[in-house]
């Protein structure tokens, strides 16, 4: 097996894929890459099947040694692609392309720097990262503990057999917004709040708190007031739910969110908006735009 | 003919509906929804029972008329697959005395009530395989601990408010711990890995 060796894990780097949907009723969060569009693009660029495991970085990415020179039969280079939050990519210190398949020779070091905008970049390798896949997903779920641990110095990251690299000359990288606007469909518990609360949610420039993580974005701003008090019997939670705990400060649930909860959800953001939310670094200002659901 | 749906649904985002289930078992309705959608070839992402709701997440909500679906679906009778489970418990939990004090019962009376009651797995949450069991008799209802423990060992059998549960793995927790079981509740190589699943009947048996 050929593998990358982790020289520096970066701030917080995990393995991610499409997650493990279909198990929420057993207490298992979906997990998976938070910015699915960027994750998919990374896999496409290196010719991987959809669903292959890639790395998700946070703020500053890892330094990885392509540790293949000890194998006589492996003189092949490996191809990697970095997408998502735009970030300097270097191979043995030399600048390499972002959002393109770049070639790495045995013994070379891939370095993913600090994001110049956004928060999370995706690193796909031709052949995909191979790891244990509880419930058919190799994603690290920070809430439930399923999946491999976050990268640490010295970890070996095995890589699977590669498919041919597609000849893509140029792609438009997925966007990262400095002040993202998220589409939100009110409900299912909007009636637990004052009518003003929904307007306030839509009017406010919310600031992403540094306590945010893959479970959710904590948003700093005015308190959203309720008209119904008491406890909501625990109910299933959508990814993208804007849940409002007792202090009135909303939390936007990302992929590793608890599957059931007892605080009312004032609205749920759309799938495409979740990709934007994934790139909202602490301190980012974000807004909600009210939408009605298609049917 | 006008078919009145027995249940009403609220929109939950682009592809979800939250169904209010005031008068039936949400876990059984969830099974009914799964069965009907499989029959009709309707793609599901999740069907998540709650305490008195079912969250249904569709692959493509445009392919579904939710009112029609809810008019046709029935809460499936408890199927054999779901079944009954008996869990062997050593009632040696660090909070057993506290629970006895809070309820005004003797420790053995707490154990007797807990082992004589048939509980139902209502829904899951908190951690993989963590099922909230309902049916706790009034006399056995105790509040959560004011100071949650940073570590509750795997297999801990616990009480809190209207629920009892078994911790499937080492977790933080504020529930009152009355016993421990050696039975694993999350077995990764099994499909599904959760030993207690919503809709199941669960009994506890004193051992040791």
From TrEMBL, chain A:
SMART domains the record matches = AHS2
Q: Which residue numbers delimit the Carboxyltransferase domain?
A: 25-295
Name the domain of life: Bacteria
Q: Which UniProt keywords apply?
A: ATP-binding, Hydrolase, Nucleotide-binding
Annotated coiled-coil positions are none
One example of the protein's molecular function in GO is: ATP binding
Name of the protein described by the UniProt record: Biotin-dependent carboxyltransferase family protein
